[in-house]
Write a structure and sequence with these properties.
Largest sheet of chain A: 4 strands, antiparallel
CATH architecture of chain A: 3-Layer(aba) Sandwich
Strand order of the largest sheet of chain A: 1-2-4-3
Order of helices and strands of chain A: HHEHEHEHEHE
Strand content of chain A: 15-25%
Oligomer: homodimer
Shape of chain A: globular
Distance between the termini of chain A: 44 Å
CATH topology of chain A: NADH Oxidase
Number of domains of chain A: 1
Structural class of chain A: alpha+beta
Amino acid sequence: MMKRSENLDIYETITTRKSVREFQAKDVPEEVVARLLEAGRMAPSASNRQEWRFVVVRDLQERKALGEAACGQTFVSQAPVVIACCAETDDHRMACKQLCYPIDVAIAIDHITLCATAEGLGTCWIGAFDEDQVKQILGIPPEIHVVELLPVGYPADPSPAEKHRLPLARIVKYERWK
Amino acid sequence: MMKRSENLDIYETITTRKSVREFQAKDVPEEVVARLLEAGRMAPSASNRQEWRFVVVRDLQERKALGEAACGQTFVSQAPVVIACCAETDDHRMACKQLCYPIDVAIAIDHITLCATAEGLGTCWIGAFDEDQVKQILGIPPEIHVVELLPVGYPADPSPAEKHRLPLARIVKYERWK
């Protein structure tokens, strides 16, 4: 995988990443997008099923339509690149009866968002959208699931956001739940 | 967030990460586990709902029981730390009708696995387990979902694994699916 010259520690990357909803008009070079997708491709998946699929959208009309499909989140169309993150799956479930594909696609997307941060790019996980509408816009077959939309672009405001999170003591237990 | 002195680029981290199923007897220091959990805590989630919960297990008897609950993947108990990754959720769904919690817990776990790699640790996403059995072992209430088990330890074989992945052309489409 090609690497960016400027090193960003993984912890730093995680701390720096924020949800970006306003983008510069500046385009994202093709080779940068390729690096992000390659990072997604490296993700682990249940039984290495690799159910993730990505539709990379740059066309302005398509992006506008996606913005409208994203439940009023029209900022989506402002990003020069929108990746529709999908799953081509037989709806395989794990022993715990859980569907594999939402988790596996999420891992790939997380890789993409973290690498985007290291590239100086901003992203935003968009889970609120009309799936049928997105499928119609992008010609995605009925049997494919659209898991997230991911706008990718240079953030208008590059400053790190403050994260509001529950304290560790609220989310971590030791040895037993109770 | 405390940082590890040795810098590992995010791309490098993603390429280096592998599923580890054999661990050294060496323990994982508490402060390292704390850094991993902190990285999980920094994850984004739908509407910042932060539904992820973690039960950190070091007790050998509990680990053995978890290994047995993991559908024969007894290597799970070999790791000095096993994290039961759960969701405390009202089963909120996005506009696309998708459940939020599997994706949001997966993002947090991905942060943990990548930081573990940077710390020289190995992990393995375990989605195959008997959820009722895991809940019984760890005293997890019925309304909580167990999403993954995550063994964490120093890998017996620290060499990077070769990843077998579909080519980019198979998983990426441009502008439209078809």
